[in-house]
Design brief:
Layout: H1 7-17, H2 21-24, H3 34-61, E1 65-67, E2 70-72, H4 77-86, H5 105-139
Antiparallel strand pairs: 1-2
Helix pairs in contact: 1-3, 3-4, 3-5, 4-5
Length: 144
C-alpha cells in the first residue's frame, strides 16, 4: 500500500480546529504563519511519501544486523536519515539559538506523525534525538 501523508488533514486541523492563532500570536512563534505551516507540512509530506515510505518494505525484508561488531542498517536507511537531518526535521521545535527552527511543538508533532506513518523504524532515531535536544535545552549547564 502506498503511503499518503495527511497534509490537508493537518492543515485543516491547524487552520480550523486547534486555534493555533493563540500560539502564533506570541512573539516566540510569530513566524509560524499559515503560509509557513503549509510549506512545512507540504515539504514534510513530500519527503515522507518520496523518501521515507519506500524504505518501509526494505526495512521489513532486510532488517538491521550486527556483522563483526558493525551495525548494518537496512538498505536506504542511511540516506533516509541523512534526508531527515539535512532537512532540519530533527530540530523543528528546537531553539534557533541552538540551530533549530523554533516552531511550535504542535507542528513538530504533525511532522513526526507523518514520518512515523511513513517509516516508523527509521523515524525512531530522530525522535530519540529530539528528546535529547529537549533534555539538553532544559537541563544542561551553560558549559555544554
Amino acid at each position: 500500500m502506498t503511503y499518503r501523508a495527511p497534509v490537508e488533514d493537518y492543515q485543516f486541523i491547524f487552520d480550523h480546529v486547534v486555534g493555533l492563532e493563540q500560539v502564533t500570536g506570541t512573539e516566540r512563534f510569530a513566524e509560524a504563519t499559515p503560509d509557513l505551516r503549509a510549506a512545512i507540512l507540504g515539504e514534510a509530506g513530500r519527503m515522507c511519501e518520496e523518501v521515507l515510505a519506500p524504505l518501509q518494505r526494505a526495512g521489513d525484508l532486510t532488517p538491521a544486523r550486527l556483522e563483526n561488531g558493525v551495525v548494518r542498517t537496512s538498505p536506504g536507511f542511511a540516506e533516509g536519515y541523512r534526508a531527515i537531518a539535512e532537512g532540519g526535521w530533527v530540530s523543528i521545535a528546537a531553539d534557533p539559538a541552538h540551530g533549530g527552527m523554533g516552531l511550535p511543538a504542535s507542528l513538530a508533532t504533525a511532522v513526526n506523525e507523518m514520518m512515523s506513518g511513513a517509516c516508523l523504524s527509521l523515524q525512531l532515531s530522530p525522535l530519540m534525538t529530539q528528546g535529547q535536544i529537549e533534555a539538553l535545552e532544559h537541563h544542561a549547564s551553560d558549559e555544554i
